[in-house]
Fold this sequence. Notes:
Shape: globular
Oligomer: single chain
Radius of gyration: 20 Å
Strand order of the largest sheet: 4-5-7-6
Largest sheet: 4 strands, antiparallel
Order of helices and strands: HHEHHEEHHHEEHHEE
Amino acid sequence: MKDIDVIGVLQEPVRRRLYEFVAGEPEPVSRNAAAEAVGIQRTLAAHHLDKLVEAGLLETESRRLTGRSGPGAGRPAKLYRRAGTELELSVPPRDYRIAADLLAEVAEEARLDIELQQAARARGRALREPDTGVIELLVARGYQPFDDEGVLRLRNCPFHVLAEAYPPLVCGMNLGLLEGLLEGTGFEAAMDARPGLCCVAISKTNTD
């Protein structure tokens, strides 16, 4: 399926809401949970969720939610999580990824880590919006934050492909951007890499 066709799958409003819910959750979700989250019946949720799986936007796994095994434990539930697929659509066609890759390669070879972090921090300050909450700021930048026992972790890294290719350079840039974005909000960003999550975590500033 072409990227434009996959994006077309999200044109259906209920389907898009289901995708946004599943994509924003830190753990795989059941059909019941997804249906309840968007306010529809389970059978309708199952239909749309499976369409999203067919399009490659979601992935599935089976697990017994009771934690039990053996006879009487019940059937495993079908759970959904965001797929690792990245989509790009530009009309007419553009290829900014190659440009970004080349720029990152040159910056890494020239050891411009500090300069890049400084520029990213300044850009983060410029992106701040007055009277906008931290969660809204992060959502607007595509980070998909969620609370993890008082720490905001980020379900999505907007720079995922480049971060995999140039981890120190791009993760440092990401940290600088978030530091600038959060400046003066009472929150601070720090490196705290976890599997499947953005390498940065956010917590309230320690005022002690």
